[in-house]
Amino acid sequence: MPISKTLEKLLKQNKTKYEVVEHRKVYTAFDSAETQDIKLTEVVKAVLLKGKKNLYLAVLPAGNNCDFKALGKLTADKVSMAKEKDIKLKLKTKIGLIAPFGSLYKLPVFIDKKLLKNKKLNLPAGSYTESVVMNTKDYLKLENPVAGNFAVKK
User: Fold this and answer.
1) Mean pLDDT across the stretch 127-137?
2) Which of 25, 65, 73, 146 has its CA 20 to 30 A from that of 50?
């Protein structure tokens, strides 16, 4: 299953440099890091959050969970994990296939500051067998996320 067509289009339209990395079929960012033999801190996971006002996309390292209170302060909304039906309805995708590109879904993006220490990010690409690697600064330029501290150890 190749990277999502909409993601490919977004990256090409914005002339963003990226590399597609193939790996065995994985369902979690944690497994993606293990399969590709890279640090958990370099692999990104995207989490759909549901607030009272909006949906949001949280982008954090694979080995971390979301601190919903901290994210609530950043979003000025009370947030929790979105349900599987929200992912299917709003993002038209499945669990484990959320690409961390809010611009694809017209959603605000929040990135944990831990990821900003990396030169490159390994991002889910809407595929169980492929990821996208790109420079952190290119991702930030493309998505313009709000940075904050909300990733906590599992």
Assistant:
1) 96
2) 25
Domain 5-118+133-153, second-level architecture: Alpha-Beta Complex (3.90)
Asked if residues 9 and 99 have their Cβ atoms less than 8 Å apart, the reply is: no
Q: What gap in Å lies between CA 125 and CA 120, rounded to an integer? A: 15
Question: What confidence category does residue 1 fall into, taking pLDDT thresholds of 50, 70 and 90?
Answer: low
Q: What is the pLDDT of residue 25?
A: 94
- List the one residue out of 119, 122, 120, 1 whose CA is nearest residue 62: 122
Residue bearing tokens 């193939």 = 22
Q: Give the domain ranges of the chain.
A: 5-118+133-153
β-strands 146-148, 109-112: how paired? parallel
CA distance 111 to 145: 6
> Which tens digits make up the pLDDT trace of 84-107?
999 999 998 988 889 999 999 999
Q: State phi, psi for 104 to the nearest 5 degrees.
A: -70, -30
Position 96 scores a pLDDT of: 85
